[in-house]
Amino acid sequence: MYSLLIDHLSTAVLQLNRELCIEYLNPSAEMMLEVSRRRIYGQDLSAALSEDDESRAALVAAIQSGHAFTKREAEVTLTTGKVVLCDYNVTPVMGALNNTDSLLIELHPRDRMKRISQEDELIANHQTSKELVRGLAHEIKNPLGGIRGAAQLISRVFDDEGLKDYTQVIIEESDRLRDLVDRLLGPRQLPQYQPVNIHRVTERVNQLISVESGEHIKIVRDYDPSIPDLIGDEDQLIQSVLNVMRNAMQALLNQEDNHDKQITVSTRTLRQFTIGAKRHRLVCRVSITDNGPGIPESLLKTLFYPMVSGRADGTGLGLSIAQSVVHQHNGIIECNSQPQCTEFNILIPIEQSVAG
Q1: Is the pLDDT of residue 308 over 70?
Q2: What one-character DSSP code corresponds to residue 302?
Q3: What is the largest distance, in Å, between two alpha-carbon atoms of the chain?
Q4: What pLDDT score was predicted for residue 95?
Q5: Residue 21 has what DSSP assignment?
Q6: pLDDT tens across 223-279, in order?
Q7: Which of 52, 76, 109 is where one domain is finished?
């Protein structure tokens, strides 16, 4: 009965003997550590995960002293090479002779909680910036309409063509500012939701990027053909993916060195995945990865804000609009960046893609 209960825990649980060999791990530990318990029973702990020598020495000390301990935000490396951030509790289990017979380790992954917290913050910031832009647009567009109308009336009075040129400048600049505000607000039409094949979206974007970049950038495809259709607006999704991929293209083209410039587009499904505070049965992930210079740390937290750009000639609207479109589909765009590897993940629920 106790074994059945532990097997159904969401917490990863391992049991080690005095030699730090694995005696037991529950299914949650198998999933977290990406191992099969049948294969690693009786093997050293390093067959499932590894840490620094100090952490291993702490386990040995717990066996000898019989004292439990907790470690926060430890980075453990799996056999696959993946690094997992987690908290863990180590509890000595006493045997018949009142000596430590084994160690019980409870692992609590922090990566997922950290990601959920970051997503909540990103969603809240995006909503705040969207409301701010809406208010700002209202305050700008009303005076612009008056300025433009007044310039048109004044131009009719002037007979001098030179003076009419000045009023024309006022009209053209008013129109330019109006267009900029419209772009800040994002798509002007409501999404037209229908079944969409995500690979039709990515292939259209790949075609456009190939034309824009010529032969300077290699596009690598890594698709999962089993991904079902999601419900969304195909044109808006194309625009969103295009904005993200064009951002990667421009970063590569602006790089001065002559290394092979490459963008990888991959698609996968994620099961029981949480976006913000909501858990979804099935999520489509489109990953766009480039081997460019990376995004400065100072820009990462404000990357999706309007008018924020890392390029001197950038408008800072592409990623903001992309995030708005994906948010309308109940999804989110995340970014991880370091030199030679910048990855944007577009996450959209498949079973319920229409925003309520």
Answers
A1: no
A2: T
A3: 109
A4: 75
A5: B
A6: 999 999 999 999 999 999 999 999 999 889 887 776 789 999 999 998 878 887 778
A7: 109
| Residue 355 included in any domain | no
Instruction: Tell whether 63 is covered by a domain.
Output: yes
Q: Which residue has the tokens 């032969």?
A: 215
What is the rounded CA–CA span in Å between residue 267 and residue 284? 7
**Consecutive H or E run containing 109:** strand 100-109
Q: How far is CA 152 from CA 141, 175, 182, 302, 313, in A?
A: 17, 12, 22, 39, 31
Report the first-to-last Cα separation within the chain, whole angstroms. 44
Taking the CB of residue 92, how many other CB atoms lie within 10 A of it?
Answer: 21
Cα(347)–Cα(331) distance, rounded to whole angstroms?
5
**151: containing domain:** 114-185
Closest CA to 16 of 40, 49, 45, 39: 45
Q: Is residue 356 part of a domain?
A: no
Q: 122 and 105, same structural domain?
A: no
Residue 39 CB coordination number (10 Å):
10
Helices 161-185 and 111-157 pack at an angle, to 10 degrees, of 160
289 with 236, same domain? yes
Q: How far apart are CA 16 and CA 287, in angstroms?
A: 38
- Determine the 3-state secondary structure of 252 from DSSP: helix
Structure confidence by residue, pLDDT tens digits, 94-146: 876 667 889 999 998 876 666 666 666 666 666 676 667 667 676 777 788 88
Q: Is the pTM of this model over 0.70?
A: no
Give the list of residues 6+ apart from residue 15 with CB closer than 8 angstroms, or none: 22, 23, 24, 25, 93, 102, 103, 104, 105
Angle, in degrees to the nearest 10, between helices 318-328 and 111-157: 120
- Measured from the Cβ of residue 25, the count of other Cβ atoms closer than 10 Å reads 25
CATH number for 267 = 3.30.565.10
pLDDT at 274: 80
User: How far is C-alpha 15 from the geometric centre of its chain's CA atoms?
Assistant: 34
Phi, psi of 87 (to 5 degrees): -100, 145
In-domain check, residue 201: yes
